[in-house]
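The authors assume throughout that readers already know how a fold can be written as discrete tokens. A single example would do more here than another paragraph of explanation. An entry of this sort, consisting of the sequence and the corresponding backbone structure tokens, reads as follows:
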Amino acid sequence: QVQLQESGPGLVKPSQTLSLTCTVSGGSITTNYYYWSWIRQPLGKGLEWIGYMEDSGVTIVSPSLLSRTSISRDTSKNQFTLQLRSVTPEDTAKYYCARSQGGNEYDYWGQGTQVTVSS
């Protein structure tokens, strides 16, 4: 059974960098054909895809967030991370990590972590 767990600070000040880590167990983030995504959902709004990292390490980020977003990984810890720079209150949301097989629907999700951007 694959499990994903997000971790990181719940409160970030405006203009700072939001950093979240997704720790994966029960499966390797380097296994062929699996993509590892970050997704967020502001309160009362729909899901917004942020980006993903392929098994090869290639990352694809939403054009609307590309200038502020980095996705990286630590294969020794089986973790992948999200960094979102220059945050504003509009980045307040519940952040999820998830797995999909290629471009197919997500089959495993983390429980999500609430991040609030506020001074």
Summary: The chain has a mean pLDDT of 96.
